[in-house]
Every structure is written in structure tokens, then in C-alpha cells.
Amino acid sequence: MMKTTRNYSYGMAAFALIMGWPIFSAWAEEGMWTMDHLPLAELKKQYNFVPSAEWINRVTKASARLARGCSASFVSENGLVMTNHHCANECLQQLSTKQENYFTKGFSAESLSEEKQCPAMELDRLDKITDVTPQVKEATSGKKGREYTQSLNKIKSTLEKECVTGDPIQWRCDVVTLYHGGKFSLYRYKRYQDVRLVMAPDQNIAFFGGDEDNFNFPRYDLDVTFLRAYENGKPAKTEYLPFNANGPKAGDLVFTSGNPGHTSRQNLLSELLFSRNTLIPFVLDYYATLDGALWQYARQGQPQKEEAQEKIFLVQNSLKVYRNFLQTLNDPSFIARKQKEEATLQSWAQNNKTPDLDGDTLWAVMDRSLATEKNIIFPYLMFEKNLGFAGNLYQYANLIVRGKQERFKPDSERLVEWHEARIPEIKALLAAQAPVYKALEKMELALSLTKMRQVLGVDHKMVKVILKGKTPSELADQLVEGTHLEDPQYRLRLWEQGEKALSSSSDPMIALALKIEPYARSLRKEMDDQVMAPQQQVHQQLSGLIFAREGENIYPDATFTQRLSYGTVKGWKENGAEISPFTNFAGLYERAEERPPFELTAAWKAARSRLNLAVPFDFVSTNDIIGGNSGSPVIDREGQVVGLIFDGNLHSIGGDYYFDLQNNRAIAVDTAAIMQSLQKVYNTPKLVDELQKGKR
């Protein structure tokens, strides 16, 4: 999913420090804290609880992330993983056949031999965090523009290469930018590339209420899937979180350990306005058009509906998110507050003789970089981020063509996403035995080519080069019918070929990627050197001043790395009405109808008399979460799993920009609901036994 705001900024917590506001009394449970920098004193003060070193280590190593998005946790010592159904949608759809639709009907393996490997899924488990700020700052000191970009990439490459110790298959290492350049940490992950499907419920209950209920509460979703990590063909031995089938109680202190993807709480006002006025309107228009096209495609028949179902879910979810982003950024009170905070920050910076950059104030440098970004953002999104060339087939072509240029450079000279430590994930994607639906590919590609022509104009030089007098539909048909990139063996052969052989390839999709590559690279260079580099340097300066004045008792913006948040199981008031923190099975059956998206399957209807209808189903808490936290375990004081994050309420979408303790709520499946469903609806005794014992 495309991000519409970038990670270079200043946030509510930092502004609170500058203005002398007491952060924790104002936003008591705010924060997505790195595992090596937890607010232990505040937890002691508020809840008389301090997690032990053993608790922190176990939670760290029993938590995980799906490399392409979402969080997860190990819930048995034999590599059993719990995450959301919607996080496994891609796997479920890829494994489905004409005879068995696992996405819709669900899946359950009775034995290890029946567990099915998810194509191209990678699971990462955090092993170690190392502060590498001194090395990075020394390497980039005094640099700017292209020189800064190259120096930063070089030191990242060196640190990551040393970290994997010659074994990039087993280890993944990422230099992570925190506080937008105020700090750099090296994250080492244990990498699992053999991840298999164990159990998934039917889509009706996993996404009960559909888009109508999405980001709302009360909810009745059993949004859970169980996977298993394998090593050398056998279930991996892992740390795990015990599964507490009793769930939490109202008022309980609970934690989430997950990988929030991105927040913009520390962005300067000018960056937020750029997102509001330029990026988000573009994204909304793009997704709204795609949503309509997918709806039309799905109406053609049941096969088309099944082919498009995962994309429809993602697009509709994204539309709701970005509409609420825009609503937050158009809120006059929010903008006024940011203006006041930033004026105070500027005044303080002037009084403390903040160093300039290139003879300009930090704000002037930021404004200049945003002006450059505005000039190139739409070509950049279309050609470098491939929004003008949608579909899996072009993605494969782009990876093969760019990989041919990047893989044979010294690691320190490669683009950061092509460092040697990242190659196993890319190669696994190319090798994945995943279905390609050519009719859907044609529709998506034609639509994206049409959007490219509309956004850039018919006279844009690259639009003319690409279309060559053809309509978008004509070109899409020619490309999809002429390529063989749907075959993973063919993709791998191209991957291994020399650059000369690739350049002479007769595959039209490869030829298109080769044609686009020089222009896309020029846009990437301009974005890296004239936008990203100065913006990061601005925030490095600002972060350094904050740390010098106030210390580092603030949390960084989200970066899709493991974070711990804490809160309590608690409802909220909506339009004067009290919202209870729990739903139950009785409410599910009261809400059910004989039509989607509130329709229950025959298995759920038949199970009603066997169920304890008073058992909690979903619950809400004050934990600070955002996109990427899906699949995060909800953990109690004892380090046991009591819930599974799958959503937030509508108010929480604004959490990308600020945290509102009164209204923001995380939504989770209760472990009591998971256990009762496995026992009395799906009849999975072996899985139940493994959860209860923590081992097979």
C-alpha cells in the first residue's frame, strides 16, 4: 500500500517538551516505544508495574512481522504463529484453486504434512538492536545532496553486511532511521522464508460486517489466521507467548507488541500541508477509480469476483484511511494547534542559535525541498513507484531489470533496497508459485496507463514514448498477452541472465521496463538528493537540539519496526453514548442477517446451540496503534496473549498525526472468542491442544 506522508518530521511529544508541557500527564498512554527504550519509570508510576528483563526479552523474541506488512506472534514453541486473516489474504488467495477457495471458505490442516507453504511470505523475528548513530553521523558529517545520499547508503551497506555475518538467508539486517535522523539503529532479524498455512476461518466471520463495519465498533470479527515457521523442513523452535484463553477484563493493563508502519506526528506543518494539498487528493482519486474498476470486474462472474477479492479489500480499506487522513488535516483546530506549536519551536530555535543549513534556516531548507518534491512527485509516483504500471507482471519485469543493474555493483554503491541483505526476499518473490490472472492484469495495467496519461498529460515525453499512438487498453493487451512472466521458472532464468542477454529479450514487458528504467532512475536520484537528503538533515538538526535540551524521553515516529505500546481495556463516549469495551457471541447472532456482509456460514448457524453466548468476542483498548499493527498480540502483565489487534476505530485513523486518549481505540479479537470458535465451530482439537500447552 502506498504511503502518502513521509517520515521526516517533528511531533506532538517533541513539541510538548519544547513548550514545557508534561507529555505523560497530557497523553498518559501515548507512544510506540522501541524495545530498547521503554518508558519503565512511567509504567511504574501509573500502574506499579515494571516489566522484567526476561519479560522484555521474551516479548521481543516471541513477536514477529510479515515482511510485506503486518505483525504477528509465536504462540507455541514449535513455530506456531498467530496473525490476522486479512494479513494472510494474499497467501489464502494464492493457495486457492478452482476446487478449493481458502480465502472464502477457510482452511484447516489436521497434520504437519497438510500445512501449505505460503508463496513469497517472509516472517522476521527481531533478534537484536544496536545503536549505530555515531558511525552514521561520522560517515555523513559535512555532506549534502548527492554526497550525503551516497555516504549514507555506503555506511548502511557496510553495517548491514557486517551484521548478517555472511548468511543473508538466515539473517536480515536493516539500518533504521529513528527520530527522522536524530538516531540510527541496526535491527537484526531472524528470517523465516518457509511459512506455512495452518488454519484460517471463513471470510464471512473474519470480515463480518465488511466495509460497513470497518474502523467501527461494536465489532464481531474473528480476524485470525494461524501459520507456522519452518527451518530445514521442520517446525522452527521458537520463544513464544502463552495463550490465555480467558482474555482480558475491563480496566486491565495490556500491551501491544507490533510493527506500526508509519506515523507523521513529528512532521513539520509544511510537510503536512504538502500531504493534504498534493499527495492525499491524488491517492484518493487513484484508489476511487481503481475501486470502481474492480467492482465492475468482479461483477463479470464468480471467478472474477474471487480473483479481485483481495484487491477490493485493500482498496476499500485504503480509501477509508485516506479520507480520514484528509479530514484530520482539514480540521482547523488541529492546524491551529500545529501552527502554534511550530511558532514556539521556531522561536526557541532562534533563541538557541540553531545552526543553519547552506546559509538558510531549517524551515527555508524544508520549504525548498518541498518545492522540488512538488515538481517531480507525480512522474516519480508513476514511473519510479510504478503507479503508472499496475499489476504483478510489470512488478516482476521491473525487479528483473533493476536487479540486473544493481546486483553487480559493489554493495555500498547500490540503492538501499538492493543491498545484499535484501536479495533473498526479492528472489523469493520472483520464485513464488503464485497465480497470475491475465484478465485482471490487463484491466489494472490499462487503468494505470490511463491515469498516467491523465495526470502527466498526453504531451509528456514519456507518455508518448510508452503509448506510441496506442490506447492504454491496446498496449495493456499487447503486453500481457506477449509476456511469459507469469511463469516463475522463466522469471528466474531472466534473473540469472547477463545484462546483454536481457537487453535483447523479446519479452514485451521486459522491453517496457528497460525503456522506463533510465527515466525512473533520474527521478529517483533527484528525489533522493534534492528532497530526502535535505529533509533528513533538517530533522537531524532539530532532533539534536531536542535531545540536548530535554534528553531522549520521547518515542520516535513509526518505522515498521517492533514497538511496544501500553493501555487499558476501556470503552469511550460517542455522541454522548457510552461504548462498552466488549462485544459477545450473543451480539454476533443478533447482528447477523441472511445477506452479506452480515451473513454467517452454515457452520456458524449450526454451532449456535453449542456456544456460550456470553463469551466476549471483540474488545477495545487505549493502546496507541496504527496501520502495520494488524496482527499484533495483546499481552497482559504476565506476558500472556489475551487478544489480537485487527483494527482501530475511526478516531484512531487520525493517530497518524496525533494521539487522542479520549477517543482513539485499538480493536482486538478476544482470545476467549478464538478458543471457543476453534473448539465448537471449527473442531480443531490439535490446534487447541497446541495453544493450551504451548507445544505440539
From TrEMBL:
Keyword Cytoplasm carried by entry: no
Family named by the database record: Belongs to the peptidase S46 family.
Any GO BP: peptide catabolic process
Encoding gene per record: dapb2
Organism: Entomobacter blattae
Enzyme class: hydrolase
EC number: 3.4.14.-
Name of this protein: Dipeptidyl-peptidase
Keywords: Aminopeptidase, Hydrolase, Protease, Serine protease, Signal
Gene3D superfamilies xref list: Trypsin-like serine proteases
